[in-house]
Amino acid sequence: MEVESQSKIVSTNWEGYVDWRNRPALINRHGGLVASSFVLLVEVLENLAYLANASNLVMYLSEYMHYSPTNSANCVTNFMGTAFLLALLGGFLSDAFFTTYHIYLISAFIEFLGLVVLTIQARSDSLKPSKCKPEMPCEQVRGAQAAMLFIGLYLVATGVGGIKGSLPPHGAEQFDGETPQGRKQRSTFFNYFVFCLSCGGLIAVTFVVWVEDNKGWQWGFGISTLAILLSIPVFLAGSPFYRNKIPRGSPLTTISKVLIAAMLNSCALRNSSSVIASLGSSPSTIPVLSNDDEEITTNNKHVVESINIPSKSLRFLNRAVVKKPAAASGVLKCSVQEVEEVKIVVKILPIFACTIMLNCCLAQLSTFSVQQAATMNTKFGKLKVPPASLPIFPVLFIMILAPIFDYFIIPFARKVTKTEMGITHLQRIGIGLFLSVIAMAIAALVEIKRKRVATDLSLLDSSKALPITFFWIAIQYLFLGSADLFTLAGLLEFCFSEAPFSMRSLATSLSWASLAIGYYLSSVIVSIVNNVTGNSKHQPWLAGENLNHFHLERFYWLMCILSALNFIHYLYWARIYKYRSVSS
To answer: Considering only CA atoms, which of 439, 474, 438, 441 is closest in space to residue 557?
Structure first.
């Protein structure tokens, strides 16, 4: 009777999860839609705070800190790239030492401090460069003023990185991946996570940007500060409902150990006849892996399956379990399960790498596209729209498309394909990559039209707005926004569902790392293009103070070609990838 009683008690707990007080999480109390709804609301506030500044930062750096258009664009891409790259740190800490719950709270406070610094600087004239004088070169921000600017920016970047690395997996962990209903709810969560991200973005690029342009940047930074501060009590309000995954140690340790052991044993095998355990096993002898970290589930209790036979894929890594002294004892001792987990991560990496080029294109939304719109007619009736509010177009389209996708497209696809997913993660990512090719082609054509208007009316050297509506720029925004919806939601869910249980937060952070590398790559491509084109007698494509003298259309055609090649590259990896999840 006592044993049966204990069994019943265990079955009421979520195995591997605790509540916010570090007590076992209960199945009937923790997790589910209620818990995830707090995460979605927090994402609205968090992205409002971040995007309100990121979308208009290039104008702030140009007008108030007196950077050139190219330097402003590079500063913004470096700032945004750093923010997203630090998501890897947030994901790593969530998996290894802390929970996603604690990482979010720490990161939100760091972002709050950074926004306070930026608000103080924007409010005080003594902390900014003096205003430009007529017929005199503007004085660029330097010294202590520049130090204050970058301290504020990179505190914000650190906070944003920690939030991006912890908040999406925290929300996704609220669903039971062992049941079809739980997996469907988790898929819906990722769709609405992007939807809520867009809701925050909508407020940011309309109301907050208008405040920054008409009332002052101190008010814009102040609103962002208030938003991130408000997100903390909202997040805490969901504490009684959250289930938090227990950290299982550093995933990087496991990855490093397997890679080093495989290399050492590979060298040792050249001079010995050691036998690799079961390397010649047939596929039929390889254990069948379930959807959740190669585990089987009985009455909601995770039971780790003993895996003694390595799979045939990536055979090089199987050498990590060779019975040699270098790898059979001490810190280099590897289990077959650890080897299989590392294989999963390695297989994810090519898909991750193929999304980088898309995010390189997305970087243009925050840089050159905003500067293009600033030279055009931004009136909408009697209302003058700030150039930094242009992202409202992809944001609105995402907000319309996300519910349609979840309520109509996915159910229809499930009926047609007779599969649980309907449209696979890789298909969603592929659609996004294809749309990015179209977007960059449209961007090049629109820039040709914009410059033709300036040339025909002899306005190339004029500061007057060109008599061409900024709605032309909105077309490329719509395609890139659609690409972002398909790719970001698809990649987030793909990395989370395919990754080993102990590495979910880190793997999900790869989605944001792709954004980071894309922003950095954008800066690198701009520099390379200027260096290559500047070696001739002609002016570099993207150099100078006047955007009308740039060869931006050539740059966009280059991005279009690179995106097309990247899409072909992606098709190869997507075709050979084999899902490990039963839901796929």
So the answer is: 441
SS (H, E, C) 197-233: HHHHHHHHHHHHHHHHHHCCHHHHHHHHHHHHHHHHH
pLDDT above 60 for 134: yes
| Helices 69-85/33-54 angle, 10° precision | 160
CATH among 1.20.1250.20, 3.90.1640.30, 3.20.20.70, 1.20.1260.10 for 31-247+345-576: 1.20.1250.20
Helix, strand, coil distribution of the chain in percent, nearest 5: 70, 5, 25
Q: Could you tell me the pTM of the whole model? A: 0.80
Alpha-carbon separation of residue 349 from 88, 522, 568 (angstroms)? 14, 20, 17
Domain boundaries, the chain: 31-247+345-576, 251-334
What residues pair up with 469 in beta bridges, in sequence order? 377
Distance of alpha carbon 256 from alpha carbon 389, whole angstroms: 45
Tell me the pLDDT tens digit for each residue of 33-63: 999 999 999 999 999 999 888 877 888 888 8
Query: What stretch of H or E contains 439?
Result: helix 425-456
Q: Could you tell me if 41 and 260 are in contact, meaning their C-beta atoms sit under 8 angstroms apart?
A: no
Q: Both tokens of residue 466?
A: 């060109």
Regarding beta strands 295-298 and 24-26, do their DSSP bridges make them parallel or antiparallel, or are they unpaired? unpaired
Q: In what order do the strands lie in the sheet with 13-18?
A: 24-26, 13-18, 244-245
Which two three-digit tokens encode residue 566?
A: 């990247």
- Beta-sheet pairing, 379-380 with 383-384: antiparallel
Q: Which of 413, 386, 544, 535 is nearest to 470 (CA)?
A: 386
List the one residue out of 43, 47, 64 whose CA is nearest residue 55.
47
Residue type, 341: E
What CA–CA distance (Å, rounded) separates 560 from 442? 9
